[in-house]
Every structure is written in C-alpha cells, then in structure tokens.
Specification:
single chain, about 220 residues, alpha/beta, TIM Barrel, 8-stranded parallel beta sheet, 8 helices, about 35% helix, binds D-xylitol-5-phosphate, binds zinc ion
C-alpha cells in the first residue's frame, strides 16, 4: 500500500502545527519536510529548529528532504531534531556513498533524491545502501508546479532496477502529484507519495487524503 507524505511547503507557516495536525489526523503516514538553503534551490524554507519544535507534538514519520549544499554539515542537527528519514540530493553530494553512510550511522533511514535531469545510473551503485529513492517529478524549489510527464518512464526504470537486484527500496515521488495522476505514478512503481499543494490547498483535507488513497488503489 502507498504511504502519503504531505509536504509542509504548502502549509501555512504561521499555523504550522495546526496544519500538520490536520494531515496527521487525516491518517497521513509521513510528514515531508522540505529544507531549502537558497543555494541548491532558489528558495529558503526552514531548519532543524522548526523540526524540533514540531517533533514534540507530532507522531508521524519525519521525512526530511534536504535541498541544500553540503548536506553532511547538517545531518547530525536534523537527526537530533527528530528526523526519521533523511533524503539528500545526488547532485549536492561529492561523496554520495559517504553521506549515505553518515546518515545510517545514526540508525535512521537514508534516501537519495534525483532531479528530473539526473539519470538513474548515477545511483546504481548505492542502491543497496539506501532505504528510499526520491524521483523529483518537478524541478525542486517550489510547490504548485506541474508534473513532468517524462518522469513516468524514469520511475519504471528505477522500479525495474530495484526488482532486478531483488532489493526492498521505497520509491518516493515529489512534485505535481494530484488525485488525478497518483495512479499513473503508483502503476509505474512509486509507493511513497508526496503532495503539497494538492493536500494543503484543498478545502477538505480528509476528503482529499481519502481520494488519493482511493485513486491510488484502482
Ligand atoms: C519541491 C518540493 C516539494 C513540493 C511539492 O521542491 O520538494 O515537496 O512541496 O509540492 P506540490 O505537491 O505542490 O508540487
Ligand atoms: Zn520535497
């Protein structure tokens, strides 16, 4: 079954806990925390302090998507803040294998993200080491962008590679996912679904979450 990971980028930052409790109460499994540094991506969001504050009141799996340069310098801080999964970008890591081992040394899950233009081949040799691969289905930086259709074949390629190696690696998709295209990404092989604007900008969060699950299981 799929796991739903609402992205807090589309929440109201002035009412962050209130908004996060809405998605927790609606049964979403992961909280997708978009961390941006204004260098790796042209936007700035939040740091470990905000994560630590949320951790006290939220029981969801904290899934940190680090869109930052030099992620190694911040991994311990995000672990201490209470993250359960840390995802780094392949494009931001000079020594990706080392960074993954660094994350895993804290006994949490490690993931690697790929921008739309980055080939699957670039992570082939670390696939055994990660718990999750994040296929960006938009260029990172902003919520509310349109899904890039060409990513469907990329998800299928990754799923094929994972299965051919007999691995148990989650495939997360992030960007432009809505109730009306969730089935396409699930059929291609994705099982962890990030959705920002589709969930937080909806009138009724519970209904939208239920619709995501219903459509994903068609
Ligand atoms: C984009 C972020 C996404 C974003 C998704 O860089 O990584 O998590 O919030 O937002 P939607 O679902 O609105 O495309
Ligand atoms: Zn994200």
């Amino acid at each position: 079954m799929i796991k739903l990971a609402p992205s807090i980028l589309s929440a109201d930052f002035a009412r962050l806990l209130e908004d996060v409790k809405k998605v927790e109460n609606a049964g979403c499994e992961y909280l997708h925390i978009d961390v941006m540094d204004g260098h790796f991506v042209p936007n700035i969001t939040l740091g470990p302090g905000v994560v630590k504050s949320l951790r006290k009141d939220v029981n969801m799996v904290f899934d940190a998507h680090l869109m930052i340069e030099n992620p190694d310098s911040y991994i311990k801080e995000f672990v201490d803040a209470g993250c359960d999964i840390i995802v780094v970008h392949q494009e931001a890591c000079k020594h990706l294998h080392r960074t993954i081992q660094n994350i895993k040394s804290y006994n949490i899950k490690a993931g690697v993200a790929l921008n739309p233009a980055t080939p699957i081949d670039t992570i082939k040799h670390v696939l055994e080491d990660v718990d999750m691969v994040l296929i960006m289905t938009v260029n990172p930086g902003f919520g509310g962008q349109s899904f890039i259709e060409g990513m469907i074949s990329k998800i299928k390629e990754l799923k094929g590679l994972i299965d051919s190696k007999g691995l148990n690696v989650d495939i997360q998709v992030d960007g432009g996912i809505k109730p009306d295209n969730v089935l396409d990404v699930v059929k291609a092989g994705a099982n962890v679904i990030v959705a920002g604007s589709a969930i937080f900008n909806s009138e009724n969060i519970q209904e939208t979450v239920d619709l995501f699950r219903k459509n994903a299981s068609k």
